[in-house]
Write a structure and sequence with these properties.
Chain lengths: 326, 326
């Protein structure tokens, strides 16, 4: 199957590196300022080298519109940066591709959080698939886990560590006695936190992931503004010590209670032997199901290769489904 | 879709109870001494009540052969007890169903451990699917996780707690200072261990599950006799205390190293904060993948409803695949 990659930062480039031996052919790549198209398949090492040298993946004269109008792809992979407010410009790109009868796979949280029900309906009408495993918890196969592995269950509750930056900061505060500003600076130095960490430490990133899980897998229809959000930026070492004296610690927990239509992100005291107490930048999600009981998934929540793992899972699922149908 | 249930013990009865509102129609049920068939769908509450009262699900005059020859089902669900040596009689039943072009879903470890490659080839030739999520780790969606959620990854290693009885015994020895015989007796009293616990405590049950994972998902072709097995029956409180003094404990760990073609089950010392240190009868599996990194799955390894959860996942996957293909 032929793939167009929209967005060529760390995730897009990581994906291009791992697609080499998979039988998928990349026919188009776009970054924010350029694009390249070859209906017979691009020379990916050459595209990666050009990006490395010039900052552009292709020619500045062409862009996403040219890739769409070429039609030279079966699956559009949208991996540009997230805009959580409007989902744009990714949302429009994804809409166009689905309307053309092309499958879409994305790691972009914006369009899925803002417009999943509309996009899913558009995909269904056009007989194509919409994969978004990479939007939540990186390599952790939570979307496939809930959709396939636990199909037939009713999820009573979901609790998760969905932001690796916050979990890293809280882990370091507990393990090394760093203050919040010290741990945040360390996370910045290691590249785990952005220069402006608001999005992570205020709990907004975790909340967007909860919106995606709630709307796409738990039968809900909520917006980011429906989530009750408290961040980690006022957690003190004293609060952590108090938790520790009770055999517990503090972590930023996302929670969905579908039956109460309740979704929130907040620092919570949890026992040290709880499966959600994971170290460093790991993510973890526990669901409580009517038949299966409690099921926990733990893994890397971010990074080019973990994200590529989730994208590849969606790509393989689309290929396998159509192989079976054909 | 129409379902025939072969085997009507705790798992078969649990499944019959949860299938009520799922859109699947049960047209046949067999236990070891009787069967019932209704091409328009059985009255499941009636069948369950008859089994409860008489020990038989149907008429003693008919059996599995009659169900097969009726052809009145789309999916055969084989949930009879495991025979690990030959896989029989389930293996023959599954072979017949696949050869008839019927899908098969099973919780029976025997046929999958003994003959997966043969059965998968037979399913492929006949254009049908073979689901076996329920054979390993109960409700934990490890088969779907490796096949779909982590598709495209190479698994470097797999480590797991795959026998809830052993994990319960070791948990109780650690937490309460019970000796091995005391903890085993408690597990028997609670129904977690059989009167003859050999199969569990000698590590054989865990080894069979490793054979299934190795052969069906990790590209290997091994037999039970290829697994290096040590059980938990000679673990002492002194050994546990020694581990504890190092911040660790002892658990029965199954291990697969695909690149070394190495599969073993043995008691291992692991740090108390390791994700595989789960309590009581829980199961846990960690895989180390080239792209995703380490991914851990934790959940209930046994019980009628956790097993029904895994069977339902396979049933839904078959239905969804054919809906997409149609």
């Amino acid at each position: 199957m032929r793939i167009a990659i929209i967005g060529f930062g760390a995730v897009g480039q990581g994906l291009a590196r791992v697609l080499a031996d998979t039988g998928f052919t990349v026919t188009a790549v776009a970054d924010s300022r350029s694009a390249c198209i070859n209906k017979d398949g691009l020379d990916l090492p050459e595209v990666l080298a050009r990006k490395e040298e010039s900052g552009l993946c292709g020619s500045a004269g062409i862009g996403i519109a040219d890739i769409l109008s070429s039609g030279a792809f079966d699956i559009l992979v949208e991996v540009s940066p997230t805009n959580a407010e409007t989902g744009e410009p990714a949302l429009s790109t994804i809409r166009s591709a689905l309307a053309m009868g092309k499958h879409v796979v994305t790691s972009n949280k914006g369009p899925i959080a803002c417009a999943y029900h509309e996009l899913k309906a558009l995909a269904d009408i056009n007989g194509v698939m919409l994969g978004y495993e990479a939007t939540v918890a990186g390599a952790v196969p939570i979307v496939s886990g809930l959709r396939h592995g636990l199909a037939g269950n009713t999820v009573r509750s979901l609790h998760g560590i969905l932001n690796g930056t916050c979990n890293y900061i809280l882990t370091r505060m507990r393990d090394e006695g760093l203050t919040y500003p010290q741990a945040l600076q360390e996370a910045r130095d290691l590249g785990y936190a952005e220069a402006d960490p608001t999005y992570d430490v205020k709990g907004i990133d975790a909340a967007i992931k909860l919106v995606i899980l709630a709307n796409t897998l738990l039968g809900m229809d909520i917006r980011l503004s429906d989530v009750d959000i408290t961040g980690i930026d006022s957690i003190t070492l004293e609060a952590l010590s108090l938790a520790e004296s009770e055999g517990a610690t503090i972590r930023l927990i996302g929670e969905i209670l579908p039956e109460r239509n309740q979704v929130r992100v907040s620092p919570r005291v949890i026992p040290l032997d709880h499966p959600l107490v994971v170290d460093g930048t790991l993510n973890a999600i526990s669901v409580c199901c009517d038949l299966a009981g409690p099921v926990t998934f733990i893994g890397k929540g971010a990074g080019p290769y973990p994200t590529a793992s989730a994208i590849l899972a969606d790509l393989n699922f689309i290929r396998d489904s159509y192989d079976r149908g054909a």
